[in-house]
Amino acid sequence: MCPLLLFVACGNDDDAPIPEDIVTQLASTTYDLGAASDLAIQGFITVIKNSNNTTTLYIELSGDLNAADHPAQLRLNTAAETGAVALELEAINNETGISSTTTSAYTYEDLIDFDGYVNVQFSNFESDGLLVQGDIGQNDLTTTSITYDLLEKDVLGASGNITFTKRLNGEALAVISLNGTPSGGIHPAHIHSNDAATTGPIIFTFNTVNGTTGISKTNVSALNDGAPFLYDDVLTVNGYINVHLSDSQLNVIVVQGNIGANN
Predict the structure, then answer these.
(1) Which residues pair with 29 in a beta bridge?
(2) DSSP-derived secondary structure letter, 123
(3) Per residue in 101-121, pLDDT tens?
(4) DSSP string, 76-114
């Protein structure tokens, strides 16, 4: 009887299912994705460290999405600078507003120190524009910022401000926001050495101001001569800002304001 009982017991063990590995989340970091169009759509991306040495990039958007799915990419550099695609992400489902991409191309540690940003587009055609956008990794924005007024100069009714926000890596995002700029205009903007009353040469060039929106966004990391120029340097720079009417009319100053040590 004993040999029979042992045989039956062995047969039951062989038929038992082998449990599958369970993947768990070990850590996560979330970054905001802000509206990049007139539509009131926003969201976030969460970078997740998995127990099987993979990384998941989970995007969730809220707002009225259109009937098509929306392509998404992880790109190099900051959103203000733009850059090449580093990783194609799963498209955003237009019904759920969700995308989930699991990859082994980048570790969790790579991505939380990544020099990059995320784009979500309207469609597969880049000319259709962006839905949302956000910096991630070392480019993420902190809560530290400073704002300087930009006052009317030669263009009646134009005024605004510039806000510098510190990034995790010590660089800054500079956002110029103006009212009263000529619609359709493209306005060069610079930091000049000295104060506005003394005047001086250009030491830093911003991305041009869109006259229709009054907005310019620029990453701040180095002066035009290549010298490091970080957020903390903005606070002490001997400088002022000019926003000009156009490349051909640099003598016409739309707005102007002292910054740094001259504020």
Answers:
(1) 47
(2) S
(3) 999 999 999 999 999 999 999
(4) ES-TTT---EEEEEEEEPTTT-EEEEEESSS-HHHHHT-
Please report the domains of the chain, with CATH numbers, ordered by start residue.
Answer: 25-137 (2.60.40.200), 141-260 (2.60.40.200)
User: What whole-number distance in Å separates Cα of residue 225 and Cα of residue 209?
Assistant: 22
Collapse the DSSP code of 132 into the 3-class scheme (helix H, G, I; strand E, B; otherwise coil) and give the result. strand
Closest alpha carbon to 252 in 216, 220, 219, 211: 211
Residue 66 Cα to chain centre, angstroms: 23
Kindly report, residue by residue over 136-145, the tens digit of the pLDDT: 999 999 999 9
Strands (E), the chain: 25-35, 42-50, 55-62, 70-76, 85-92, 98-103, 115-121, 130-137, 141-152, 159-167, 172-179, 186-187, 189-193, 202-205, 209-210, 215-220, 238-246, 249-260
Between vectors from CA 137 to CA 136 and to CA 141, what angle results, nearest 5°?
65
Q: 186: buried, middle or exposed (CB in 10 Å: 19+, 13-18, 0-12)? A: middle
Confidence (pTM): 0.89
